[in-house]
Amino acid sequence: MLPLPPGVRHFPGFLDESRQRALVEEIRVVVQSAPLFVPTMPKTGKPMSVRMTNCGSLGWVTDKEGGYRYQLFHPVTGEPWPPIPESLLAIWREASEHSGPPEACLVNFYSDKAKMGLHQDRDEQDFSAPVVSVSLGDSCLFRIGSIHRRDRTVSFKLESGDVVVLGGESRLAFHGVDRIYPSTSTLLKNGGRINLTMRRVTRLSGS
Ligand SMILES: O=C(O)CCC(=O)C(=O)O
Ligand SMILES: [Mn+2]
């Protein structure tokens, strides 16, 4: 495989099985109060193939009218997002090398056919903090390039328990998920993949 772009760190098996199982239970609790919703693309209103929700003080949402944004409340229930579970905050502390805590954790659920097109994470005000992403359940093919959409990309598999950090030069790198490999994990009873993406949104005061 080609080397990873500078600023991308991949930690295969960062979470052992018992940490993965505990995390799935915590995400179930999050989803009970903040149900998965179908995000839609700005302007066209085309539904994305993933379903999503959030935890944290801010949550990332998108719809036809409002486009990509962070907001304080769930777009369907109108309720504030539930807090980020302590076990996820611990992963951030272990992997981010950043002093401030994450403010948002996007929860993406991929069924067998879901994918995510090449995009940048750039709706945050603070790009000094990395994006820390956790994979649970079925494996996927992840792709990442540079800050220019047309540059060469490298692809690699993400498996359950893997953590990826996008920081430094790659904080704004284009990335996406090309496919899910169904039935490659038994972690989730009904299959599929969960991705948890933690981000800082606002600048830390004093920095
Ligand atoms: O599912 C993944 O591994 C990536 C998700 C992602 O890039 C995002 O939600 O912005
Ligand atoms: Mn992303």
Your description of this structure?
- The chain has a single domain, classed as Jelly Rolls (Sandwich), CATH 2.60.120.590.
- The protein contains two helices and twelve strands, in the order E-H-E-E-E-H-E-E-E-E-E-E-E-E.
- The chain has helices spanning 17-33, 86-95, and strands spanning 8-11, 51-56, 59-61, 69-71, 104-110, 116-119, 131-137, 139-144, 154-158, 163-166, 175-181, 193-199.
- The strands form three sheets. The chain has a six-stranded antiparallel sheet, with helices on one face. Strands 6-11-8-9 form a four-stranded antiparallel sheet, with no helix packed on it. A two-stranded antiparallel sheet has the order 3-4.
- The longest helix is centred in the first third of the chain and has 17 residues, at 17-33.
- It is globular, with a radius of gyration of 16 Å.
- The N and C termini lie far apart (38 Å).
- Bound molecules: 2-oxoglutaric acid and manganese (II) ion.
